[in-house]
């Protein structure tokens, strides 16, 4: 095992290693998000059918993307923790859960805001939104399990098992909801599908997605670092840090 | 030195059967508790006419979904009892320590659980069909979908039961965890009945339900066994 | 290998094991070796990790460091064989209150692949003759524990791990159990136990948890 892997695997090593990354990630996310927002909201052409309201996709689509990707990040972190018994992996998983839940919520709310001008109602039970809602519940289950266990070590393992079971079920759930929707809606209009994209609409979307990824990485690392400090609060190096030393 | 580290098949089979018989015996000694989910099932079916509408035609439209949702809730309520008693009196730890493969022992417990809750629920469902004006065409599909579906729900519920067994008042948390996983079963089960009512063959849906059952039979015993070890560890 | 030499090599060995609960160390650096025919009493203050050690030996828990060896082999490699050779009696009786003692033994025994013998004689040996068919819920706490102890008469497992086995047992039962443990050890078995009561047996090794406990 290379040295950097070992260093990465220890909470203290992770903390030290990621400290220089933070300013870069912060700057990158800020720039990308600002560029994408201004471009998408201001400069991209208005959609022929939906007018300006479609612009919400610049928030809705990236957040939906990352909400789903985030679940897999959480599950993979849990799996690594279970298989290789890495404390740090469980901490990353614990940090990823509320982050993913927040992103799912953002995608649901932005979807609702899209719905009002487009179809006249805030909530529609279509396939995409319903799947997002179920994903939200899956996240809530993992978070609730973390809080229910008093033993933090067992909490991590239990949540990892649940996250893995959820991962196996996500394709099934998505397919089921998809199928359920077509059963009740004979015309296969996918209401939350982004309008057919002209490159000038598509490019700011890519920028926004990249910006969201950077922001996700930044917040995940920050949350994990907070979790590390909390868990290791009894140790020497944290005390040293609190006194103003460097990690 | 043994070549492989396993228990002889004969001994494992005997243990499986012993556990099966034991759990069935225990269930019958608690006959009253066995009836609770069934009574719940019938009672909540009364809530819909009281709360929504007693009108036959409207009930008929809603009936497939309502019966299925009620069966799901009854299943959810009974999931907690799968491991709780064993955890409390120490027999769960004995099971986990035994040389027999834990996933197989878990399978025995889930089988009994279904025989004692899911199966009676299925057999009782025509009664609800009558009470909620389910059209005649739907009854066959109702029985078939519930037979397959409640078995899948028992399998899935076991994972939640194992994860929450060591938590005090873990019943609500169990519901939270397990509900998203229940949803595909609900979708295909309810629509199987709906299709039958509409005159379309529900065989495709029932096949999917069968596949979901098979998938959960494959995944659940192992996930449940792992979850039990985590719960006992904490 | 000649018989005397076989008996001389340790059957159960703990090498430098440590245990953490929720990332807080409970004990570390624990080592001992037991040969066939030996009895080990684990003692220490409450919270020093006695029950934890017994659960570790019973494979209910896994150590955070170190190895446990059974007949020279690492536990990870022979877990099932090890579990076939062990009987664990924990704090709880481990029996179902709704079943009778006879029924309890009937479901417990198939889980010990080598168990054999007469359930009635075992129940009589623990002083429950005549109560074989009363539901355990109607028995006293001490009687329920004795149902669990009856397993010891029937199992041929080499390793007995007993956590406070004398709880709620009267003096008569205590001496009977001590005799049983002695007989088991002379047959080549191994006993690991914790108890607050003074043992009326000779030749019991003592393991103090104090030196290994982490504050």
Beginning-to-end CA distance, first to last residue of chain C: 44 Å
Number of structural domains of chain A: 1
Structural class of chain C: alpha/beta
The residue ranges of chain C in which pLDDT falls below 50 over 5 or more consecutive positions are none
Strand order across the largest sheet of chain C: 6-7-8-3-9
SSE order of chain A, one letter for each helix or strand: HHHHHHHHH
Mean pLDDT of chain C: 86
Number of helices of chain C: 7
Oligomer state equals heterotrimer
Helix content, binned percent of chain C: 25-40%
SSE order of chain C in H/E notation? HEEEHEEHEHHHEHEE
Head-to-tail CA distance between termini of chain A:
23 Å
User: Number of DSSP strands of chain A?
Assistant: 0
Computed Rg of chain C = 17 Å
* Main pleated-sheet profile of chain A: none
Task: Name the largest protein-protein interface in this structure.
Answer: B-C, 32 and 34 residues
In one word, what is the shape of chain A? globular
Backbone structural class of chain A: mainly alpha
How much strand content do the residues of chain A show? under 5%
Sheet having the most strands of chain C: 5 strands, parallel
Query: Radius of gyration of chain A, rounded?
Result: 20 Å
Structure overview:
The complex is a heterotrimer of chains A (247), B (234) and C (215). With 247 residues, chain A is mostly helical. Chain A has 9 helices and no strands. Chain A starts with a helix and ends in a 5-residue tail after the last helix. By secondary structure, chain B is mainly alpha-helical. Chain B contains 9 helices and no strands. Chain B is elongated and about 60 Å long. With 215 residues, chain C is α/β, with parallel strands linked by helices. In chain C, helix 4 crosses helix 6 and helix 5 packs across helix 6. Chains in contact: A-B, A-C, B-C. At the A-C interface, helix 7 of A face loops of C.
């Amino acid at each position: 095992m290379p040295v950097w892997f070992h260093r990465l695997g220890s909470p203290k090593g992770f903390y030290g290693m990621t400290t220089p990354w933070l300013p870069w990630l912060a700057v990158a996310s800020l720039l990308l998000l600002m560029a994408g927002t201004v471009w998408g909201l201001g400069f991209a052409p208005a959609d022929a059918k939906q007018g300006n309201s479609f612009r919400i996709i610049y928030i809705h689509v990236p957040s939906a993307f990352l909400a789903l990707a985030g679940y897999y990040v959480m599950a993979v972190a849990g799996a690594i923790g279970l298989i290789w018994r890495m404390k740090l992996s469980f901490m990353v998983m614990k940090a990823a859960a509320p982050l993913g839940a927040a992103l799912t919520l953002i995608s649901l709310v932005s979807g609702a805001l899209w719905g009002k001008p487009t179809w006249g109602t805030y909530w529609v039970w279509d396939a995409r939104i319903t799947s997002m809602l179920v994903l939200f519940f899956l996240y809530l289950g993992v978070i609730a399990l973390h809080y229910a266990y008093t033993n933090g070590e067992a909490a991590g393992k239990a949540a990892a098992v649940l996250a893995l079971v959820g991962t196996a079920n996500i394709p099934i759930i998505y397919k089921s909801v998809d199928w359920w929707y077509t059963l009740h809606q004979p015309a296969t209009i996918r209401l939350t599908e982004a309008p057919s994209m002209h490159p000038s609409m598509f490019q700011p979307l890519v920028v926004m997605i990249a910006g969201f990824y950077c922001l996700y990485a930044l917040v995940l690392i920050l949350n994990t670092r907070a979790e590390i400090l909390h868990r290791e609060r009894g140790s020497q190096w944290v005390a040293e840090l609190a006194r103003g030393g460097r990690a | 030195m043994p070549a492989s580290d396993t228990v002889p098949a004969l001994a494992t089979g005997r243990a499986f059967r012993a556990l099966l018989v034991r759990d069935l015996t225990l269930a019958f000694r608690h006959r009253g508790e066995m009836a609770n989910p069934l009574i719940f099932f019938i009672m909540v079916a009364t809530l819909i006419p009281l709360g929504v509408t007693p009108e036959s035609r409207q009930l008929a439209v809603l009936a497939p979904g309502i019966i299925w949702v009620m069966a799901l809730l009854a299943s959810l309520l009974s999931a907690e009892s799968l491991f709780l008693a064993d955890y409390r009196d120490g027999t769960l730890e004995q099971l986990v320590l035994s040389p027999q493969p834990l996933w197989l022992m878990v399978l025995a417990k889930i089988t009994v659980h279904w025989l004692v809750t899911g199966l009676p629920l299925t057999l009782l469902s025509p009664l609800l069909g009558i009470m909620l004006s389910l059209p005649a065409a739907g009854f066959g599909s109702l029985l078939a979908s519930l037979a397959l579906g409640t078995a899948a729900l028992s399998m899935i519920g076991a994972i939640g039961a194992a994860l929450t067994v060591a938590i005090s008042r873990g019943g609500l948390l169990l519901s939270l965890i397990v509900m998203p996983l229940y949803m595909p079963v609900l979708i295909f089960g309810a629509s199987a009945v709906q299709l039958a009512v509409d005159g379309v063959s529900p065989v495709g849906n029932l096949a999917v339900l069968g596949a979901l059952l098979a998938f959960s039979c494959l995944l659940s015993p192992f996930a449940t066994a792992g979850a039990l070890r985590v719960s006992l560890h904490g | 290998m000649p018989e005397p030499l076989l008996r001389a090599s340790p059957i159960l060995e703990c090498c430098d094991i440590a245990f953490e609960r929720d990332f807080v160390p409970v004990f570390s650096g624990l080592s001992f070796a037991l040969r066939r025919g030996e009895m080990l009493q684990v003692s220490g203050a409450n919270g020093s990790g006695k029950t934890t050690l017994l659960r570790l030996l019973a494979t209910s828990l896994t150590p955070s460091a170190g190895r446990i060896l059974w007949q020279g082999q690492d536990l990870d490699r022979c877990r099932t064989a090890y579990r076939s050779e062990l009987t664990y009696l924990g704090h709880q009786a481990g029996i179902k209150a709704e079943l009778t003692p006879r029924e309890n033994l009937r479901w417990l025994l198939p889980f010990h692949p080598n168990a054999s013998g007469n359930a009635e004689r075992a129940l009589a040996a623990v002083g429950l003759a005549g109560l074989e068919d009363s539901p355990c819920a109607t028995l006293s706490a001490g009687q329920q524990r004795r149902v669990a102890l009856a397993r010891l008469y029937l199992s041929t497992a080499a390793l007995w791990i007993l956590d406070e086995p004398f709880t709620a047992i009267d003096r008569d039962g205590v001496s009977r159990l001590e005799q049983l443990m002695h007989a088991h050890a002379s047959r080549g078995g191994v006993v690991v136990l914790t108890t607050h009561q003074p043992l009326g047996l000779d030749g019991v090794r003592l393991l103090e948890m104090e030196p290994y406990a982490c504050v």
